[in-house]
Structures are given as structure tokens and as C-alpha cells.
UniProtKB/TrEMBL annotation:
Superkingdom as given in the UniProt entry: Bacteria
The name this protein goes by in its record: DUF998 domain-containing protein
Keywords: Membrane, Transmembrane, Transmembrane helix
Transmembrane segments annotated in the record for this chain: 6-32, 53-76, 82-100, 129-148, 154-173, 185-206
InterPro entries assigned to the protein according to its UniProt record, in alphabetical order: DUF998
Length: 207
């Protein structure tokens, strides 16, 4: 690999680290300070609604693009195309989540009726598909990383992350369908575990 390629690989991987951590920090701060928003109940996607919705929309798109760049860094650093492809789907699905926001529902933004409307918009449907891409592609990424790892600690970490993401994904799905009071909390735990793994993984390829 030429010095230029080495430099660009490091830049792309650093983008993955920054995008992952910035996404988490932004939605945690925005969710904690947003009037009428309940982080324990409401999903992160609901932050893209209302007068301050541009903050989370930007968070989705910018951090999604940064993490997609991280996927390119993974490809250059590991030469494992399937691992990089899964990571790229993860990042691009995050971008799509920002382009296609969910519908107002379940009391947010303030003044929105409680519960889930019987009819939802096409944009909401596309947001759901984008979310499926995010939360399906990430455990696929961690699983491939587990299989391809040659380091015991990395293998255990990636494997444990995969298991946690799968369990939390189904827990979140059930909580969402039942409008459980801790739906947002479950999703946040899932996001933090997954996004931190992505940052650590990209960072490990930098050294």
C-alpha cells in the first residue's frame, strides 16, 4: 500500500470513529434537553420531528456519511469486501433514516395524539425500511468481524456485541409494537453498544 493509500485509509477510519461517537453524543444531549421529549419512551428517530428536528436529521445524515467513509477505511485496511459492504449498508441506511423521517406519534412532538396512527405516510414506511437496514446490517458487520478476527479479545468482544445486538433488536421490536414505556431506553442501549463497537473497531485498525 502506497503512503497516500495509508493516509487515506487512516482518514476514512477516523471518520468512522468520529461519526459513531458524535452520533451518540448528539442524540443523548438533544434528547435530554428537548421539551416534551421522553428519552426513556420515545425512539431516537422522533428527535427528527418538531422545530429542533433539524438537529437529529443532520445527525443521521452527517454521521451516516462519516460511518460510510469508515466502511471504505475498513475495506482498505482489511481487504474483506463482505465486512466492508455490511458496514457500508449500515452507514447508508443511517443516512436514509435522516432523509425519510418518521411520522409524529405517541405524544411527540407535543400535542400529537397518543398511540400509533392506523395510517402512516410513505415517508414513514421508508424510514422503517431504513431502520431495518441499520439494525440488521450492524450485527451482520459484528458477526463477520467475529469470524475474521485473529485476536482472542477482539473475537470475544465482537461476538458478545453480536449477541447483545440481536437480543436487543428483538426486545426493541416487541417494545415498539406494545408501546412499552421503556422502548426508547432499550433502543438507546442497543445503539450505544453497537456504535461504540464500530468506533472501537475502526480505531483498532488505525494502530
Amino acid at each position: 500500500m502506497t503512503p497516500y493509500c495509508v493516509h487515506m485509509t487512516a482518514v476514512f477510519l477516523l471518520c468512522g470513529v468520529i461519526g459513531s461517537l458524535l452520533f451518540v453524543i448528539t442524540f443523548l444531549i438533544d434528547g435530554a434537553t428537548r421539551p416534551g421529549y421522553r428519552p426513556v419512551r420515545h425512539p431516537v428517530s422522533a428527535l427528527a420531528l418538531g422545530s429542533r428536528g433539524w438537529v437529529q436529521t443532520t445527525n443521521f445524515i452527517v454521521c451516516g456519511l462519516l460511518m460510510t467513509a469508515g466502511a471504505l477505511g475498513i475495506l482498505l485496511a482489511t481487504e474483506h469486501p463482505w465486512l466492508a459492504l455490511a458496514a457500508a449498508v449500515f452507514g447508508l441506511s443511517l443516512v436514509a433514516s435522516g432523509v425519510f423521517p418518521m411520522d409524529p406519534m405517541r405524544g411527540y412532538p407535543p400535542g400529537t395524539p397518543e398511540g400509533t396512527p392506523e395510517d402512516t405516510s410513505r415517508t414513514h414506511g421508508l424510514h422503517d425500511w431504513a431502520g431495518m437496514g441499520v439494525f440488521a446490517a450492524l450485527p451482520v458487520t459484528t458477526f463477520i468481524a467475529t469470524l475474521q478476527s485473529t485476536d482472542l479479545l477482539s473475537t470475544v468482544y465482537s461476538g458478545a456485541t453480536t449477541a447483545a445486538l440481536v437480543v436487543l433488536f428483538f426486545s426493541f421490536g416487541q417494545a415498539w409494537e406494545n408501546d412499552a414505556p421503556r422502548t426508547g431506553l432499550i433502543q438507546r442501549v442497543m445503539i450505544i453498544i453497537g456504535w461504540v463497537w464500530f468506533a472501537v473497531f475502526c480505531g483498532s485498525l488505525l494502530v
